[in-house]
Amino acid sequence: MTQREAAERVRHDLGKYVHLEARWLDEDATTEELREALINDLRRTRRGPDGELDCCALWARLRPTVATLDTGPIDHVAGALCADLPHLDALDRAGLRAVAERARALAEACRRLVDQVRE
User: What is the pTM of this model?
Assistant: First the structure.
């Protein structure tokens, strides 16, 4: 796999799905709707016949394929989200909004990773 293909895979597999459901919610969404979207986006980032992976496990699996690129921004935001995962069920609305913003930032960092290898 080329570096471009690996970066594109990170963008798609992690960047697209880590903020998929939460991005469609508007300001009128209930706290529980936001919580459910974040649980799906972060705890079930990859879903398939082999089971589910949360965003942390998925990044751990994908990271070695892009190790020669600058993964610092992704590492930073992913680390914060990994700390958030166990607390999603208990966070208030403000806390959930902050997590949603971090998930959005991770998606953006994954998109920027591809820019490192674009021609």
Answer: 0.93
